[in-house]
Amino acid sequence: MKIKTIKQNLSLLLSCVLILTNVANTYALSSIRADKNINITARETSQANVVYLKNGEGSLTLGNGTVNNPYQNIRTALKNIKNGQTLKLVGTVSYTKYEVDNEKAPLPLMINKNITIEGSSGKLPTDVDADGLVVRAPIQLGANVTFKNIKLQLVPQVVLGAGGRQNILGAQSPMAATIFAAGNTLTLDNVNTKVGTNSLQDKDRPYISGGTYKNNGTLGEKSVINIINPNSQTKFAAIYAGDYWNDRNIDVEINLNSSVLNNKIYTGGFSKKLTGNVSVRLGDKSNIYSFDKTNHSGNLNVTVDKDSYMDNLDINGIDELTLDENAKVILKKGSDLNIKNINIKKDSVLDLRKGNNLNLKGNLTGANNVNNAGCMLIASTQTLNISNEVIGITKLNHLNTIYSQVVANNHQYVKANKSSNGDFVLDNIVHRGYILEKNISGNNKIWTVVKGNNIFKDFIWGSEYNEIIKPSKYKDYDISLSFINDKGANYIPYNQDWDDFEFTLKKADGTILDEYSALDDMDICFIVNYLSGEITLNILNENYEGKVILSVKNKKTNKSASKDIIISKEKIVEPKPETPNKPEEKPNKVLGIKATSNSYNSIKLTWNKAINGANGYAVYRSTSKDGKYTLRKTITSKNTIEFTDTGLDTNTTYYYKVRAYRMIADKKKYGSYSEIVCAKSVLSKTTITVSSKSKKATIKWNKVLGASGYKVYSATSSNGTYSLKKTITSINTLSYTNTNLVSGKTYYYKVRAYRNVNGKVVYGPYSAVKSKKIK
């Protein structure tokens, strides 16, 4: 009995809506002006696909839809307009003389043509005298319709007698102010949905439904709701993917790139079930943090758009979550990972560290290779349980220099089905000293982080800088040193492991310098890079000449290795070309070479493994495509198919080629060079946030490795002209407060890092734009 009563009351609220025709209620349209001065260009006059409408409730027979003789009644205009045409509104167009159904409720304004409805004056929708459409009834689509650059005012109705003594006129029925997509495409492009000019009316915004008004009209196959190019008054009370009056089985697509809702999307109907699938795409400016699946039994698929950043997202109930390239999502604190499938694309990050119960019911799909992989951040108190498979490659707990989480020894980070062909990878520098082990236990494949147990066996010096001609005191001469363990694999010592090694430099006069005394020498010094394992040589005296010897020794095994370096002012004598190898002795040409920026001073190379018995690879570098290439690295393991070139100048283009070699009679037989590839070592893009206090905006950003400072820019529109607000010269200053702003106005900000290189300034990419309405 109670359920029946609730349904009757709901029907009364949504249907029995009466209009007060002669009473000046709260929503009297006192601010609406029927006529506007318009400026129609000659080009618009000649457009055959444009129909003009003025007044909206004038004579059904007046006007012919031209610029000089607009239609006077909206019914006439909608009847005569053709598919593909544009209906231009002249001033304010009204629809208040509506028809009613058998319950005396207003029937919706039906739009049954594929048209665009926009203003004619060129004024902004937020202008007081902008062109607009004022409707005292719902709107329902019977075709694909775009509302563009107008005021779109759906006036909430009042139910007579409801509301008690507090409201003499009755209670509002705001949901009567609804746009019903009805299985069609609804696009709202730069619309102002504010009713009137009273600040108390700011909350009275239209609703959107994917369904129909009762059984009115015809329901299409799929509702698509697009809200694009929002202005400061583009706001909606709520979006219901489903219907108010009927159970529906249609698919619904919702695309938002703006903060137009109160943080939530309803994927079902208001009181009726939706069994179709709902797809939601969230852009960088959207403020959706959760999804209400009440009355929805279909799938909910959510995509976070490219370059978007979403904090505090509750993904509970989502069936499939996709992070497009460079998207960043942070899980809401305490929320469950109650989800089926996750897709992580290039450079995207899914931060699970605040979540509980990390149970993925379907598959995790990553990238096809590590260079295109995204990242998952998992705390050392969490384990991600995947019911099905890991597909593709996903980075664990590190991406670039911003997103990182330390790992714990002997902790199980991921469990998945044992048939998983995909993998997780650890960064061998950030997480140096740790490796990721895979084991099969029952029906599970388990990824566990453990400390590496490397037993030293040998050294191999790199072939860089065997000769240094015309030395510069401003240059870092980085020399690679490979540490080989007892299994023949390269590794980098970690923490106390470095205590087992001793480094010395013997000068031309016989003086021997260790790591400490080298810092005081006036001619030459060296520094050990404990992150990369490289040794950096600095020649402080540019007139210094002679042979120096770099040596390293393992104190436990007494194993040592030395590298001779000739320093002189003479020109390099070109070596004679090698005698060509016999075709059958050479390895194949290296294929699949790629070069990408790894940081502000490094570039990473990758290539395909040689397929015909190569023993290693030689990497060459030049500063011009057709210039001289010098040997940068000799790789002695056939399984190592990548190299990170460090110590580079920021924003400088470097060219690379690689060739494989095979050891025959203790000599290297080289294959053909690979194709030439190039890349720049560039500063990373920072991520910003903007907050507001009284007439102030505070911009904060993440630190960029290698930056000398930052520049902050602002504008008064997202696509407007950005001016430089502040140059930050301290690398540790990561915020800026913009003062003396106008309350109620929205400001847009972006930040980029810069670096001083040899007296010049080079810039990193701009951050994504963030906006804030000033309090």
From TrEMBL:
Residues annotated as domain Fibronectin type-III: 682-775
Keyword Signal: yes
Keyword Signal part of the UniProt annotation: yes
Position of the signal peptide: 1-28
Keywords in alphabetical order: Signal
Annotated protein name in UniProt: Fibronectin type III domain protein
